[in-house]
Amino acid sequence: MALIAVxxxxxxxxxxxxxxxxxxxxxxxxAANHRDGLQxxxxxxxxxxxxxxELAATPDWDAVLAGAVxxxxxxxxxxxxxxxxxxxxxxxxGETNRLRCGTRAACGDADMDVVAAARPWGRNNPRxxxxxxxxxxxxxxxxxxASRAYVIVWVADDPSENDADPRRDGQPPAVVDPRNPGNPxxxxxxxxxxxxxxxxxxxxxxxxERDARSPASRLRIRVWRxxx
Length: 228
Description:
Layout: H1 2-56, H2 61-65, E1 81-83, E2 89-91, H3 92-101, H4 109-112, E3 129-135, E4 150-157, E5 188-196, E6 201-210, E7 219-227
């Protein structure tokens, strides 16, 4: 009987030890995923802030929307393949096409004008351009940024535009509405910032606009939200 009692107790203690080890392992994994996710979110926000600062100092946003002007933080791989921290590869051109028209294949104006749940503005649908991209560690010169994240910031015309010309900022409305003859999207841009970390990806959407009450070198962030 004593032997049976000892074996039973040993089995229970073994089960308890295994349970505690499993719980510790799972909790550690959850904490690591949470940490990596927050790092990626902060990386996306850092890239967004850098883009906002450079856009504030750029007087001609038409050139930005046309893809002719990009940020100084740009590794020049806007149409190439980049390696991500988790070992996978990202086709930047394909990802840009996915934002523009929902498919990774190249798409023209007719495809981008299609009304969809994510793009309900028709001829005013955004024509996304890569404005900034590169490893976060290279965001600041001579600075030690302990991150392996790769960040991208796309830019497009503000979706509230009504000029049917998403490659230019704030032209006269395509169809003049006597009740609202102006263009509410003039002087505003839509930014889509994303960071690819180790096993995590976080994205931020923001609408920025020139603010007459602020110095010319500053922009006001009208909308900031995390998206998927």
